[in-house]
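Supplementary Methods. Inverse-folding protocol.

Structures were first reduced to a discrete structure-token string of length 296. This string, shown here, constituted the complete conditioning input.
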């Protein structure tokens, strides 16, 4: 089954006197790019999350955000003595300079000082966060299940679209073969007429050499190999779809091969019908390439 690289999931959890909220999302990427925004005071959490996310997916630009907060009835206030000392020292310097200028400042209240940023902390001061880390990691599989379900659902839609586009490529390839076959007799007749014209208007021309040159022109306009390769690419693409993700890189490379054959077919066409079919092929292949960009 194919997986899309686009996905989103959100989840809330609580344990150990804490509550948290997850936000996990991903978009297209050439490889796996993990961007984590998690509390750094929970020891070992980020490394464990990176490990588990790396096992769950192969490609995508993935962003995981985790906000953890202590329950209100468990919150403890703590005085940041270092910050308080710095604030008091700064206040003393301000008062000294004010007195030097003959200015009188109103007395500071304790509540004013406590309200300054960093003086009073409400963050957790847990010294051992292993139990909290374990509880959070236990919650991760539920988040991943929801996230991967969305990627699988998107992948099913991609699979259907790609199979339909491969059917179109197969049909157009068959039309190209018919058009090339119809062009074959006309091309042969034109070559014979050109050979006769050259021999009739050129004294001493080497008939064998002229015939050889015209035969080389015929070979250069033959699209049999391009048609055969297009058919082979269709088979290879269907095999990859049957295997399921992760096949995005291989599919992307295959799209380049599809496009190369379609371009060559157009350059060799020398026929209105064959050129039209070649352009239709290029259009479908380009649409297919855009879809492949989102396959994991």
């Amino acid at each position: 089954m194919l997986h899309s690289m686009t996905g989103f999931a959100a989840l809330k959890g609580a344990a150990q006197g804490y509550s948290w909220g997850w936000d996990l999302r991903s978009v297209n990427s050439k490889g796996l790019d993990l961007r984590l925004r998690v509390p750094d005071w929970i020891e070992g959490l980020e490394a464990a999350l990176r490990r588990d996310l790396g096992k769950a997916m192969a490609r995508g630009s993935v962003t995981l955000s985790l906000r953890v907060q202590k329950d209100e009835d468990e919150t403890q206030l703590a005085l940041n003595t270092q910050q308080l000392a710095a604030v008091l020292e700064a206040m003393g310097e301000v008062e000294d300079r004010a007195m030097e200028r003959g200015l009188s400042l109103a007395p500071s209240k304790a509540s004013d000082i406590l309200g300054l940023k960093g003086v009073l902390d409400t963050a957790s001061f847990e010294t051992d966060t292993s139990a909290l880390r374990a509880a959070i990691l236990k919650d991760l599989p539920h988040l991943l299940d929801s996230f991967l379900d969305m990627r699988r659902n998107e992948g099913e839609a991609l699979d259907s679209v790609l199979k339909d586009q491969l059917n179109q490529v197969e049909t157009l390839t068959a039309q190209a073969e018919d058009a090339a076959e119809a062009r074959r007799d006309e091309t042969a007749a034109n070559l014979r007429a050109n050979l006769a014209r050259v021999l009739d208007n050129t004294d001493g021309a080497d008939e064998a050499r002229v015939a050889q040159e015209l035969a080389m022109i015929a070979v250069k306009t033959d699209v049999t190999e391009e048609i055969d390769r297009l058919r082979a690419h269709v088979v290879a693409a269907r095999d990859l779809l049957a295997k399921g993700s992760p096949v995005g890189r291989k599919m992307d490379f295959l799209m380049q091969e599809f496009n190369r054959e379609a371009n060559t077919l157009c350059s060799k066409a020398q026929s209105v019908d064959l050129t039209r079919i070649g352009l239709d092929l290029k259009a479908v292949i380009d649409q297919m390439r855009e879809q492949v960009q989102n396959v994991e």
